[in-house]
Automatic annotation (TrEMBL):
CDD domains associated with the record: GT4_PimA-like
Protein name listed in UniProt: Glycosyltransferase family 1 protein
Gene Ontology BP terms: carbohydrate derivative biosynthetic process
Classification via InterPro entries: Glyco_trans_4-like_N, Glycosyltransferase_grp1
Keyword terms, alphabetized: Glycosyltransferase, Transferase
Annotated organism of origin: Streptomyces coeruleorubidus
Membrane-spanning intervals of the chain: none
UniProt xrefs under Pfam families: Glyco_trans_1_4, Glyco_transf_4
UniProt lineage: Bacteria, Bacillati, Actinomycetota, Actinomycetes, Kitasatosporales
Entry superkingdom: Bacteria
GO MF term set: hexosyltransferase activity
Residues in Glycosyltransferase subfamily 4-like N-terminal domain copies: 14-173
Alphabetical list of PANTHER family matching this protein: SULFOQUINOVOSYL TRANSFERASE SQD2
Keyword field contains Transmembrane helix: no
């Protein structure tokens, strides 16, 4: 099958959607399909052989964050060229309502289109206001996928229609078999995320840290991600700042080793999350998880069965839960066991097969329609009407 996948966000600023698209493309390539990914990217960015650049992206505030998107006449021309050269059996657009390549592709594409909706935003006035503009593009979509029940709810409430829920995928074994790193072990709390993006929740964790260190002064917080490190610790008393170690951006291999090494992974995100891929990665690596009780996080953690939850933005509750878990190795072992079992439903062997089934359904439907039109045309040329 010839598969075209559209990424709305810049390939050179990685995030959850980009990782999902990368892993999905590589899963299909391993199965022998032909895959091309169209994505915004700077001209000097090294790209995998299956990624085609649609040109430089620009930063735009979007869904409580800053997304790097690509839109305009030049982008539209590159979309048309990519569609023409690819001659795809199916086109898979991610975030088709974002003002980026997905919407341009919806407008330009012919044939079966599958769309995945990642965003969870229950109060998006902009999406409601833009419905009239989006409607023509959305009507061309053959099948809709939402990565969670909350992304599906956003779609239903703002745009109408429905979607099948297929979660984000993870290569579970990649994380489960990573080698721990000795220097990241030993009474460590882990956090991965953009440091300077408030909704990722690092300020909440920093607010909780003095209480954690008062009870457990030997504990260290390891932070992986880009951002201003000095600004991140400025709220901490000077004598506690040495207990925070910043690792900067880490490779996929080091992320897996990081999650295999820490005693506790904390996800203090404050909102705007439709899934929580980092939670799945942490569980895959066997890290006990403590997360804010966002609806999407609660669903990923099996309502607290596969990881513990604390009230969103409650630093005291976070601190109390972290101290309790760090003091209780048996409870952490129980969470590791439950998380490792629960996470198998998110492995690419399951998620990729489900997405491929959607592709096969829409391409079979398109073939049936084409055959019906061919037969109808034949009857017309023979001078017969067909009921």
């Amino acid at each position: 099958m010839r598969i075209g996948i559209v990424c709305p966000y810049s390939w050179d600023v990685p995030g959850g959607v980009q990782f999902h698209i990368r892993d999905l493309a590589e899963y299909f390539l391993r199965l022998g399909h032909q895959v091309s990914v169209l994505a915004p990217a700077d001209d000097d960015t090294p790209l995998p052989p299956y990624v085609v650049s649609a040109g430089r992206a620009v930063p735009v505030p979007y869904n409580g964050s800053v997304a790097r998107l690509n839109f305009g006449f030049l982008s539209a021309a590159r979309v048309r060229r990519w569609l023409h050269d690819g001659a795809f059996d199916v086109i898979h657009i991610h975030e088709p309502t974002s003002p980026s390549l997905g919407l341009l592709t919806c407008w330009a594409a012919q044939g079966p289109i599958v769309a995945t909706f990642h965003t969870s935003n229950p109060r998006s006035r902009a999406m409601i206001a833009a419905y009239a503009i989006l409607q023509a593009a959305l009507e061309k979509i053959s099948a809709r996928i939402a990565v969670s029940e909350y992304a599906r709810r956003t779609l239903v409430e703002h745009l109408g229609g429905d979607a099948v829920v297929i979660p984000n995928g993870v290569d579970v074994d990649f994380f489960a078999t990573a080698e721990p790193k000795a220097e990241w072990q030993g009474d460590t709390i882990g956090f991965i995320g953009r440091i300077d993006e408030p909704r990722k929740g690092l300020p909440v964790l920093m607010k909780a840290l003095p209480k954690i260190l008062a009870a457990r002064p030997q504990t260290r917080l390891l932070v992986a991600g880009r951002g201003d490190e000095e600004e991140a610790v400025e709220s901490l008393p000077a004598e506690l700042r040495s207990r925070v170690e910043f690792l900067g951006m880490v490779s996929d291999e080091d992320k897996a080793r990081f999650l295999r090494s820490v005693d506790l992974y904390v996800a203090p995100n404050t909102g705007g999350e439709s899934f929580g891929i980092i939670l799945v990665e942490a569980m895959s690596a066997g890290a006990p998880v403590l997360a804010a009780d966002l609806d999407a996080f609660a669903q990923v953690l099996d309502r607290g069965e596969a990881g513990e939850l604390f009230p969103n933005e409650d630093a005291d509750a976070l601190a109390d839960a972290a101290v309790r878990l760090l003091d209780d190795p048996d409870r952490r072992a129980e969470l590791r066991e439950r998380g490792s079992a629960h996470v198998r439903r998110f492995d690419w062997s399951t998620v990729g097969a489900d997405i491929l089934s959607v592709y096969e359904t829409v391409t079979a439907g398109a073939a049936a329609v084409a055959e019906d039109e061919r037969v109808t045309g034949l009857w017309a040329r023979l001078g017969f009407a067909r009921d």
